[in-house]
Amino acid sequence: MEVPAHTHTERKKWTHYLWEFLMLFLAVFCGFLAENFREHTVEHRWEMQFIRSMADDIKLDTAALNGILVKRNRRKEMFDSLTALLNSSQRDKFISRLYYFSRHMQRLSPVVFTYNDRTIQQLKNGGNMRLLRKQAVTDAIVLYDAAVRDMALTEDRENTYMLQCLPHLYRIFDGNVMDLMIDSLSAIHEPPSNVTLLPTAMASLPDFNGSLHSMKSSNIVLQNKVKALIGKGEKLLNTIKKEYRLK
């Protein structure tokens, strides 16, 4: 019986294994580069979306702050007039005007800033601040956000001063008259000229003056903070436009 001859496979050279290793390494490396490029592209797209959204938020903030500054300037005028007329020997000639000013001072909502913080919250809560590659923009955002929150604390103090002021105000001005000053749209109108102050008005005047002083001081502080925040917002917007070449 014949024994089949053994076939011998030619032994591969070491260069062949080296070439296979290089090809495998190249394939893995190219895959890594492709994935890295894809992630970079996605992150850059998210970065630009956040930046454009932030720019829109700042524009809305700035418009609102300019409107609030106008209202706070008017508020200062009303406070000064209320103090001057109420403590004047001629106050009885201006009772209806005093009611009008005192009713307006109780409204804080038109002069309280509502922060458009949708983008900054997404950046902070989602850990997305790392996507912003421009350090100048990141620094400006942090400073702006801190300024907004600092102003909010002063607004809270102003609300506290208002609550302290109200008991004294209610001993000077008649609540029934104030009811007649509000229309169906919640607008405030000056009452008739024949209205009078309450009998307890003069006894309560010193305490009211003290509380009103706190309100006036708080309003002045907030006027300055609103101006500063407008400046920081404009600086942030200009930095964003410069660093990201936005129009």
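The record above closes out task 2.4. Task 2.5 opens with a second protein, given below.
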Amino acid sequence: MTMIANPPVASAEFDPRDFRRTLGRFATGVTVVTYEHEGEYLGATVNSFTSVSMDPPLVLVSLATTSRAAERMVGKPFSINVLGHDQHDIAMRFAGRPEAIDEVRWNEDHIAPRLAESHAAFVCEPWAVHEAGDHILVVGRVHHYEAAEDGDALAFYKGQFLPLGIA
């Protein structure tokens, strides 16, 4: 398969802030990608997450190339934790506001740490990394997955966290 990338021509009409605001019209789920680095459990709040393949079971997250996660996580097992509607504080903690929650509870029973009370979780082995502009696309092969019995997911829409409300 041949892929052709045609970057947009620089234009006075292309406004990056307006582009970002327009992308915000697409509602996404909220995840925290967790991993171990030098004996410490770390994570990053990410809303760019998608399934890639059923066979083999692959998922993908997109990380800013300037993020600590992009620097520290590549090549290591990681977990993608889908947040529940009441986990706004956890999203904020891993978005760079550590004061949002005092303590994070972890599960350590698989190849990568995961949040103890997420709505769903996917524990992954590294599969591939692709450069994509100012982001990297990290593909993981799912080693373990689980989901909560009920409850609503946390969504991100127009720059705000909202309960999905469809349980």
